[in-house]
């Protein structure tokens, strides 16, 4: 199989609460594989766009569990690095009665903060059509350098580059650093997925989601997807590009079990749709269907859908809208 997509970023362990409430009050947590780029990689594999995945986990029980899980989900282990000198990142997730989530990260000096620049060489990138990364690895020193280096060289090699800021304020020293680093990365990005709130905190302005997406395109991206949770998403493509135009989708109405990972599933759906040369409207519909399908079972990675499940929600055609 020719893995034409490369995904880069963190794989970690999510500990999900057995009941709502603050972390000190929750009596039990369930271990689940996680990390937004890891979820995107598995989702792409289930959508028949199996990628290479560059990540670094500890050579510890958690890291070996993640390695085994990724391989079992048809993600090749070529760039799944086991670090003998660092632990695997952990994230404890809590939520209130409304489902709003908070994260407590154990990530000081862990393996995914130790990605090394140049590990993905130019020869590897020359054989890829698409590279995707997220914002978490930009939050820490060596991995920040490695991620920025990857995006820069991927752009030079002619790869389509997609990016999800995946804003986690807990991991950044301050809001100004987050804004400066992420905005700087966008100069090498072709496809951006974010929420309106994330774009606003990056300093982009607009009275509507379409307007703020248009402002974000001035930083580099040719197309911006703005997700709106259960209300669907919009997309804006720059004039003169293959994705020119605007599109909106109100979202689907699945029987929701767990929304964890829905945004990552949306990203995978958008990548798959654009790689399959769907137009912007059909891609947006398909990405919404993938994201919605991911909410119909518990757990981020476990719930990521294949095409049959996505088809039960919507096939991505204009008629779905």
Structure description:
Belongs to the carbohydrate kinase PfkB family. This is Carbohydrate kinase. Its EC number is 2.7.1.-. One of its GO terms (molecular function) is ATP binding. Pfam families: PfkB. The chain is α/β, with parallel strands linked by helices and 321 residues long. The chain folds into two domains: 189 residues, 3-Layer(aba) Sandwich (UDP-N-acetylmuramoyl-L-alanine:D-glutamate ligase), CATH 3.40.1190; 129 residues, Ribokinase (UDP-N-acetylmuramoyl-L-alanine:D-glutamate ligase). It has ten helices and 13 strands. Strands 5-4-1-8-9-10-11-12-13 form a nine-stranded mixed beta sheet, with helices on both faces. Helix 1 packs across helix 8 and helix 9 crosses helix 10. The two termini are 34 Å apart.
């Amino acid at each position: 199989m020719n893995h034409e997509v490369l995904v880069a970023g963190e794989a970690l362990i999510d500990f999900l609460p057995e009941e709502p409430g603050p972390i000190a009050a929750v009596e039990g947590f369930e271990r689940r594989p996680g990390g937004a780029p890891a979820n995107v990689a598995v989702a792409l594999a289930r959508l028949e766009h199996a990628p290479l995945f560059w990540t670094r986990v500890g050579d510890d029980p958690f890291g070996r569990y993640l390695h085994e899980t990724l391989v079992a989900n048809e993600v090749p282990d070529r760039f799944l690095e086991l670090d003998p000198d660092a632990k695997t990142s952990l994230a404890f997730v809590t939520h209130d009665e409304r489902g709003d989530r908070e994260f407590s990260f154990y990530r000081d000096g862990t393996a995914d903060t130790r990605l090394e620049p140049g590990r993905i060489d130019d020869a590897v990138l020359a054989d890829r059509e698409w590279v995707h990364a997220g914002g978490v690895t930009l939050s820490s020193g060596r991995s920040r350098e490695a991620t920025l280096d990857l995006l820069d060289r991927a752009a030079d090699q002619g790869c389509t580059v997609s990016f999800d800021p995946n804003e986690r304020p807990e991991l950044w020293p301050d809001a100004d650093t987050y804004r400066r680093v992420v905005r700087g990365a966008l100069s090498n990005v072709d496809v951006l997925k974010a929420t309106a709130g994330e774009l606003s905190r990056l300093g982009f302005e607009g009275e509507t989601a379409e307007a703020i997406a248009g402002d974000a395109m001035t930083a580099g991206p040719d197309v911006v997807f703005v997700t709106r949770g259960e209300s669907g998403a919009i997309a804006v493509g720059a004039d003169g590009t293959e994705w020119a135009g605007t599109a909106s989708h109100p979202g689907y109405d699945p029987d929701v079990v767990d929304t964890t990972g829905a945004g990552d599933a949306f990203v995978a759906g958008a990548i798959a749709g654009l790689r399959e040369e769907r137009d912007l409207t059909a891609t947006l519909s398909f990405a919404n269907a993938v994201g919605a399908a991911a909410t119909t079972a518990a757990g981020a990675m476990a719930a990521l859908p294949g095409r049959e499940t996505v088809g039960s929600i919507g096939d991505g055609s204009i008629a779905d809208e």
